[in-house]
Amino acid sequence: MRKFEKHLQTQGYMTRNVDYPSTRYPIERLAEIVAAEVEDAAETNCEGRIHLVGHSMGGLVIRAMLKDYRPSNLGRVVMVGTPNNGSQVADFLQKVPLYKAAYGPAGQQLATDQSTFAHIFGPVDFELGIIAGTRSIDPVSSLIIGYQKANDGKVTVESTRLAGAADHIVIAANHTFIPSNKVMWAQAISFLRDGKFHR
Question: What is the distance between the alpha carbons of residues 101 and 99, in angstroms, rounded to a whole number?
Fold first, then answer.
């Protein structure tokens, strides 16, 4: 997200690019870690609103965080390629040792069966915009997902959807590289500024 962060700064936004140990803890613990960063940012930026932008699992971390912690000056939230309803690729790889080692406990929570951890997410009672991609460059992932389903190589467009979202848009972008996609940048900023995507 570094390039996007720099672009946000050129547009007048103060930014904090939050890093977290995504392979060591489940999403609910990651949410606590991020909440501490957000709380600190809120205290040092008390005159403005705190907007949140999360890519992939980052969007799930935001959802879990907002269930239990919400800054009083919360602004708008943008999720980019977030598997809100899980990923078939994660389903396929769940029991593969290399995947388990690389993605850790949170990686297991990217599955489409969310019955054991759905409680960590609350309702969408905040302004949310969702950006989904439709460009896959991984034929194996596309085979797992199914070529007939629009996807970004990891997450289907349908899986990004979430009840309560204010807006949802689809762009031609790949899951891995969507954070560097300038169309994504423009659409994310459109939602942060106006509460809707540009069409």
Answer: 5
